[in-house]
Structures are given as structure tokens and as C-alpha cells.
């Protein structure tokens, strides 16, 4: 910002909102001489990095400006003006709606929805929307609307951006090659010991990444100690957890929507942001934030170019990140100060690239943790206002997993060179421990796996580009002393103060001693430690569930031996010796209340009703395991949870076997009107403890035919749930889904499942205001059937912290009495239940423990379908080994309740209800002699709990859902005859945009009355006129038809369950319907059956996760048919970008398909086939067109039908059939098998299916 940037400070007002900061920077750029459109395009660029068909001049504009400023990332619809130009733009992902109307007299209405003001339909000449990364602009002086392409073409040609870019971008390929060094096995082994590598890490982390180029998977959660409680020296990385988006903004989909993300970056000094003419500050272009040794060598030896004033001078230096380990904390601190001054001096000399390296450690000099090193230098340069003058590159030996790379980038590293991880991988190949890949390919795979893993972690926070992620610090410190955080990680949030620099130094010294023993006798090939972090090992990290505790629990519940159960809980609860959880550091205060006789405490039969089992899907676990839990919980009057895999209709209608809690997750598998109507509770899963910010996944080998049928998908084809709910991009959207679910079953409680992290209290308060009946706080250590190991170990926080924050925030905001608070996450004993109650929880969830009771032996291979005890498998042979019974699960929960009674009696509480929220009965135990716990501060758990005696500490009143005011009440009344005896009824009624979820409550009444004996087509025929609100026809069952004359907002046909929906313009319209927008974004999300006919264009993510519905539309936005597993789409206009991403079933017929708009990965891999129509296809398309024309009076359909009459072959050539390869192969395989008289669900056919799908 020129020579004296401090004269402008503060540019962003401290403590202001994101929007305020954005406004201030936009104004600064405008004042620098740029137009307002130029400034906005710099700040919110469209997704140009992977846009193959973008105009090169426009790409050069974005690329050049990326050297000056990283994108302002995240979901946003931003309006702006400079006084004469008024405009709006949408973020690159299109995660906010933007609709506009233009009238014949020049009025322009722009809003996030239609129907905000009344306008005569006959006066409207144009109805449009803003697309992702596009701009809508009104020039009020010229009196015209300026098209997005005109705005951008004008700016793209304003300067020779491509020439400016060429002069400022250095390709690594243009730099001199350096010699590749191969290290000996002894050298690698010595340094592995120096940095604390274990055999387990080589086997479980590095080996799979070297082979598969992906972050390895694990299962069953984490039950090892937090780093601050571990008796072993832990890496500094382990004291940080990844933050993630939940509710307030969505995580992104880095897999299916990769084209809007970018790992490309350029590193080097930043130019003057305020200069409007050419800026000369060359930067090195990188395709990936992870670089190999040869690339690092090029950067470390970069010189000033020929012709520059300092021609030939070295522009890079390497700083040794080593210190004298025998000097402890003082030596470490002094060395960090020295390094910071060394870097500052180098920058003052003109150095532009600083490599912070921990190489060349020896017996005297130990490596400084790379995270401490980068963050110390980064914050030093920020404080000295020189950070933008250099790029910081890290050469680190302690980096060996995705979490480590993400942390280094998040705390300022422009690029990371994990040299020892790469050398370790090469050694694994040479030793034969990893086969089938060359050392060069293995290193390439490792770099790819680490980089893609960073992209996933970025995406959890809704960040699309690595440039925006660098220095973002989207992490929470857990167990670091506050002064340490303030000094070296300023701005990082921490709820739990703990170890200081002295302990960090001690942990480094302990690892260092493994390589250089104090006695001075080095062993060149001393084996690495075994590990035990991911799987239990006798000599490794302790696990709460180990062979001893598993045996005791199973023995106790199978023999109904309460004495053995008590020995199990004693082993778990004996935290005073093992210090494995925060709750282990809490004790009960004696003497606050007079102890009671246990006879005076509420009975077991009452307590167990507060218990539920976790959300484990059918598919993840076997039918036998799932039904065992459901039967047991139903016997107890407690609740089991379907998980996100749906529920088979046979079970759904059987009160003995069905799950009381029906989960609604992002995949919407099996979420129908019937499913929701038969729920006692409906749980919206915003996040999962084991993998917050990510979707669920079910491997292809577990998608057996019976699982596929329940999930409305294809046998043998793997399933991935989207990371976000595509109908939740904000708290308002969550409120809408709560509203939908409550109308889909007014008698069911609606839960929202959150994961513990800093700020969960604010989110819980928002969820409560959005009228959730239950807020669930999940701990970071919860179980899962499949999760990337980095998420399983490094995302989220303990439930104790999240629960305490939630309780305190709800009370402070006067909301506690309106909502039930539930908690889950590795709950195993009655003591833990009582601690949770005292911290504010009213209900308690268990998942791992009931599975262990049912036979699980914690093999942690749930994702492989090889579970040896029949719990987490669909394989019929393995399922036959399942030994669990409902009575074992009943025993467990009754024993648990009995233990709760005993503790309540000791504390003087007559019931759990009395105990809820009484944190005054908790005490912080004096920590045992432990070298890390001296500075541990558990105050946040209990502080802030001292409220007035009359303040509600638990739920007392229900939410007011205003069900009696819902639009459908009048529809239900008008449909009385149909509900009574199936008599057809026709209804005509006006609708406005505040009428949301129209038809949903009526659908519930129909489903409740008729169940699977559905109504005939069009039995209840409703004609609506006007602008419908969100979720028109959500979960609409068969027999109901909605005909809308007007417009609709987002989420039309969400969860469509057999109903029919037609949307067409008002009868008075004057425009061409096919060129105008008729409905919003995310149409048909999670639809399972039914029909939709939409006369006009719609927005982004059309038919995402459709699994059985048929829809006709005249144009769609980006990401159409994403994650589709069944059903049919007929698209009569353009598709937008990224069509068919993750489409694994169903079929789409597209008119004049632009192949460049189809998902590139799906085409390149052959997953999607683009076919010409055969005779059957032509007949099918004509029939659909005819229905569309009849139902909507579509002029476009009429013209196409006329063309089919005159020249059917010619018009058919315009259509492309988009068909998933594996879906087609499976259908053909099953059809052939039926022709041979084979059981299509049998073992022979299943093996054939896996052969054709490669599952």
C-alpha cells in the first residue's frame, strides 16, 4: 500500500463484522481510482482457475489481480453502489439466491426471493437471477441494465493484463534444475526417531497415501487422550483442532464441486494494492501448496532476473529452525527471537523468499516444531508491518499428515516441503513395505494426497482457494497456555489453557533423546516405537475401549452381572490414573446436599427414557445390529436412531423394530413423507463428531441390493453424502428445514445435531431461535463407520466444553427453557451421564458402547465390510456370526441407569431433572502428578454457571411452532372428503411468498391416514396463484397435485414423495417463459418419487440427490443432477457448469448439451456416458414433452413436439442421453440374471455386480 501504509490504518475497523470489513476495503479500492465493478471483481472473483472456456483476457484479469489480493471467500450475495451504478454479485459457489424482475416501465426489483412487492404480472417483461460469480448491474444515469459479459469484457480489455501477468509470474519449470538427493536408510531412521515417527504412522498414514494418493480412512472414532492429557510427548500439531462450518455458513463440496476450488497459488512479495497501473513484483506460481525437495531447492536458490537492478543477487535465504535442546524453554525462546530478527534483517536487505528449515539436527541441536517456527515468524512480521514483503516456505521433518500441512498453511506458510515424509515413503518402497508403485510415483501420490486433504479441510470452513486459506488460522487451540497462544499464535481461540513453552521444549527433548540417547550411544537402525494412536497396542497410547474393558462390558451384559458392570465402569472412570478425558478431571462436591436413600431416587424405568442410541445407518452396520438396538430401545421406552441410511418400509411400519428417531442428513437417503410421518423425533444432522464438515460415505462393497433398495440407489456403487445440506446455507435456511420437518410431522420433535467447537453456544442459540425442539452437542470423539483419519483425530472439541458453552449461552440469552439439550460422544458410564446432566444436558446418546455390547470388538475396519463379528458388515456370511441380542442392550442401559441412581442418591438429587444444570455440584479434581497438567485450566467448564436461582436451567416449555397458522390448515379442511373416503377434490387458492412448505402438512395428513395404500393420482388437485414461498411441495406424497400459476422460490419439491408439482407463469404474462426464471435453487433435492413440470428456467443444483422423481424444466444453473442416484430429468435448455457431478444413477435427457459443461472428472473417467437416443428413448422423451405441454401449456414443448411430427430424426439428434456407466451396467446385469432365473439379490449376481462396477 505504498511507502506509508500506516497512514491508512485501521483499514478495517477492529471488531466489525465481515460485511463491514468488506465494505471498507471495497471503498478503499474504489478511492484508489478503480471503478466499483473493478473493485468487486477483485474481491469476489468468479471461479476462473478451472474454467476451461473462459475468455483468456478475462482470465488474465483475474490472474493478475490474484497477485495483489486473495479472494474474499464464502457464501455471499453482495449489493453495491457508487452513487450511479447499482449492482449485485454472487459468490463463486452460488450459495445465496439472487432474483430480479424488470417491468415495462423501467422498475427493477432485486431481492433474495420473488414476491417481496406486489407487481402486476402483465407489467413484468423479464424475470432473471444472478448466477455464481456473475454480476447484475443497473446504470441509473444511462437508464439501462449492463450485462455481466459487457462489464467483464470492458474491464478485461482496459489494460494489457496478460502482458502484466507474464512479467510478474515465474514458473518453477523456468528455474534451474537442482540435484536430487537420496538419503540412506540409517539417515532416514535417525531423523524419523528425532521427529517421533512411529511404525503405525508409516503403516496407516504414509503407506496408504503413497499408494492411493488420498487421506486414509478409519472407523469407530477416537478414544485416546487429548494431547494435553497424554503422558507421551506429542507433536505441537496435536494441540490444535480444525474449525468447521456448521449452520452459519456451509462447508463446501471439494469433491463434486472441485471446479470452484483452487490449490493453485503464487508466492512472493505482494505489490502495491492501491496502484492502478502496472505493478512489478514477480511471484513464483505453484500448482500445489505441498512441494517436493527439487521444487524447494529451486525456490531456495532463486536469484534476481537478468535486467533487474540487483541482477544475480540471491532473493531467498534458508533459516535454520534448530535450538540447543539442553537449554530448555529459555534456549527455545531465545532462538525464536533470534530467528525473527534474522528474518527481519533479511527482508530489509531485499530477500523475498524465506525458507524456514528444521533440517540438519544433531545431538546438540534439536528441531523447533515447524508450527511454532512458522507462526512465530509470521506474527513477528505482521507486528512489524513487513509480512507482505516476503513469502514464507517451510521445510519440515515433523510433517506427515494432512492436518500438519493445513496448520502450517493456516499459520502463514506459502508452501510446505515435508521432506522426511517423502524420504520415508521412498524408504517404504525400497524396503518392500509398499508394493506396486515406484518411489517417484509414491512421492507424487503423497504430495497429491496431502494437497487434496488440505483442500478438504479448507472446504470444511467454506474456503475455496488456498490463497484465502493461507494465514487464516481457522483452528482452535486445545490445552495450550493462554500466554503462549497470545505470543506465538495471536488471534487463535482457545477454551482450555494448558501447557506452556516449557512443556513444548520438554516434548521436543523427549523425542530428541529417542535419536540421541543421553548416554551418547547411538543405534543406527533402532526400531521406531509401535504407536497405538489409531489401533490399540499394549505398549501404545491407552484407549478407553481396550480388550479388558470390552470383555468386562460384554460379560456383564450377557450374564446380567451388575457387579462385573461396576468393574467395567470403574476401569473406565479411573481417570485419576490415566487422565484420558476432561470429565476425568471433574469430581463431585461432597456435602452440598444431604445424601438420599436410593429408594427415594427416580426408578430405572424413568431414567432410561432419557437415553438414545447414536445415528448409525443401515448400511454402515448390519440389519441384525440395527434391529437389535431398535428393539431394545423400544422395549425400554428409549429411542434408537436410523442414521442417514433411511429405514426399510417393513421396519418403518413395525412399532417393535422401527427406530424412533429418523435422521435427515445431507444425503437424504430414504427421507420420504412416510419416513417422517412415522417418527417420534426428526434429527437434522448438521455435523458429525468424527468428521464435522464432511459428508458420510458408504463403500461400494457395502451397498448390497437390500441396502441400495432402502437408500433408493444402485447396488455395488459407492455412496457419498454432500458435505453441506444443499438447502442450508445460512441459519435462515436451517430455520426453513426445521419448519419443513415440523410440517411433515407436527407431533415429532425436531433435533439439530451440532459438534462441539468454540462458538457452539452462539450456534445453539441461533438454532433455538430457529425453533428446534432439541439441540444435540456431539463430542469430537464420536464413532463412525468411515472417516478420513485426519478428521477422526483432529476436528472438533470434547463435548464437555461444547455442552458448558451451550448451557451458559442459552441461559444468558433467555432461551434455556425453550429447548432440550442432548449430548453424545464416547459416553460409557453412569458417572459420565451425571456429569453431563450437571453441565446442562437432559438427554444422553450412546453409540460405541451399545455396539460393543452387541459384539463389536473394536477392530476399526467398519469401512471395509470385513467386520468379523457381523456388526459393521452386510456380508451374509459375516452377518451370521452376529451374537448380539436385544436383552444384552437392555441390560446395559438398565445397569447404566442404576449407576446413575446411585450417584444421584450420593449427591442428594431425587431425579436427573433435579440435577440438570447444577454445575455447582462439580469440582475440579486436583490433577495427579503429571508433567503436562500443571497449567491446565478447567475454569471455562464451570465459570459462568452462577446464575440467579430462578433462572431456568432446563427445558420447561415447548417451542411455539405456530402450526395452527400454517397455510395447509385451510387445504386440510378443504380436502376433508378426500381424507375421509378418497373422493377427488379440486381447490383453487391464492398464495404469497410467506406461505412456506405449502402442501407438506396436508401431505402428512394423507400419509398418516393412508400409509402405503396411497391415494390415486390427482385425488387432491390444488391450483395456486401468486408467488409461493420456500419449499413448495416439500415431501409431497402421492395423490396430491400442486399447480402454481406464478413463481416459486427455492427448494420446490424437496423430498418429493410421489406427489406432482407444476409451476408455470401467471396467465397474464407477456414474456417468453423459456427465457425467464420460474423457480429458485435446489429444486427436487432428495426427491424419491413423483413428477415436476417447470415451465421456465431454474437455479443451481437442480435435482441434487434425486433418487426416483421425474422432472422436466426449460433450463437450469450450475451443478445440475449432482449426486443423482435415480429418477429422470428432461432439460430443454442450457445446463450450467459441472453437470452430472457424482451422478451415479438415473438418467438425464438434455437438449443441445454443451459437453464442456459436464463434470470433467466424470467424463474423463468414463463414469458418465453421453449417448444418442434409441427408439425407446425417443418415445419416452416425446411422452414426457407431451405431458409437460399439457400440464404447463409450454410453448417450447409445443414447438419440439411439432418438430417430432415433421422430422423426428432431426430433433432427436439434438438430445443427449446422460447415463451413469455403472448404473447401466448393474441394471443390465440384474436383468440378465433374472432372464437366467437367478435371484437378482443373491450372492452369484452380487459378485457379477462387483465385477462390472469395480466395487
Description of the molecule:
This protein folds into four domains: 5-94 and 131-167, no CATH class; 187-515, TIM Barrel (Alpha-Beta Barrel), CATH 3.20.20; 547-579 and 581-941, TIM Barrel (Alpha-Beta Barrel); 986-1221, 3 Solenoid (Pectate Lyase C-like). Helices cover 34% and strands 16% of the residues. The chain is built from 43 helices and 43 strands. It is globular, with a radius of gyration of 31 Å. The model has no long low-confidence stretch (mean pLDDT 92).
For the structure shown, list the relevant keywords.
single chain; 1255 residues; alpha/beta; TIM Barrel; 34% helix
Which secondary structure elements does this structure contain, and how are they paired or packed?
Blueprint (H helix, E strand, L loop, with lengths): L17 H14 L4 H8 L12 H11 L10 E5 L3 E6 L8 E5 L4 E4 L12 E6 L5 E5 L4 E3 L1 H9 L4 H6 L2 E3 L13 H10 L4 H14 L4 E2 L21 E3 L22 E3 L15 E4 L6 H8 L15 E5 L1 E3 L3 H21 L4 E5 L7 E3 L2 H14 L7 E5 L6 H9 L4 E3 L1 H12 L8 H22 L5 H4 L5 E6 L1 H7 L4 E7 L1 H15 L31 H13 L2 H12 L1 H4 L7 E3 L15 H4 L3 E5 L7 H14 L2 E3 L7 H4 L8 E4 L8 H5 L3 E5 L11 E2 L6 H7 L7 E2 L10 H14 L4 E7 L4 H10 L4 E5 L8 E2 H6 L4 H14 L7 E5 L5 H9 L4 E4 L1 H6 L22 H4 L6 H22 L4 H4 L6 E3 L14 H4 L25 H7 L1 H6 L3 E7 L8 H11 L9 E9 L11 E9 L8 E8 L24 E6 L12 E7 L11 E7 L13 E7 L8 H6 L2 E4 ...
Parallel strand pairs: 8-12, 13-15, 15-17, 17-18, 19-20, 22-23, 22-32, 24-25, 25-28, 28-29, 29-31, 31-32, 34-35, 35-36, 36-37, 37-38, 38-39, 39-40, 40-41
Antiparallel strand pairs: 1-2, 2-6, 3-4, 3-5, 6-7, 9-30, 10-19, 11-12, 14-16, 21-33, 26-27, 41-43, 42-43
Helix pairs in contact: 1-2, 3-4, 6-12, 6-16, 7-12, 7-13, 9-10, 9-16, 11-13, 12-13, 17-18, 17-32, 21-32, 25-37, 26-28, 29-32, 35-37, 39-40, 42-43
EC number: 1.4.1.13
Pfam family, one: Glu_synthase
GO molecular function: 3 iron, 4 sulfur cluster binding; glutamate synthase (NADPH) activity; metal ion binding
